[in-house]
Amino acid sequence: MTWLVDAYLWIKAFHIVSVVAWMAGMLYLPRLYVYHCDAEAGSAQSETFKVMERRLLRGIVNPAMLCAFLFGGALVVTPGVVDWSDAWPWAKAALIVAMTAVHGLFARWRRRFADDANRHSRNFYRAMNEIPMLLLIVIVVVVVVKPW
What we know:
- This protein is an all-alpha fold and 148 residues long.
- The chain has one domain (2-145).
- Helix content is 80%, strand content 0%.
- It has helices spanning 2-6, 8-36, 44-77, 88-114, 122-128, 130-145.
- The radius of gyration is 18 Å and the shape is elongated.
- The model has no long low-confidence stretch (mean pLDDT 97).
């Protein structure tokens, strides 16, 4: 495991890049849904949104999340990085589970749009757009400030 200690800064850098990419997609995807709500089902505009949403989710958001998990997991098992007797790593883990659940909801809604079966309004997606940002703020505060 000493190689993890030697590679710590590289792993941390790639974790941060992965999280930034994941969050960029998580913030943009519900905005696409807001605009998609205004497009008539079957229209050229609706079909364009379907392509954009699928490519964003499958090409950026999903791979970025997997990389964030991979590099974050490597940080967790790096000796001396995480003290599990502190409360903050547990809080961060719970928040990551919440972010992953939101990711899953976004993916479900993308499939519904793809099937022309959206059930929500543009105002709903506007509100949902705020959740990843709120989670991100709390995660960063927990990790940097370590309030517990």
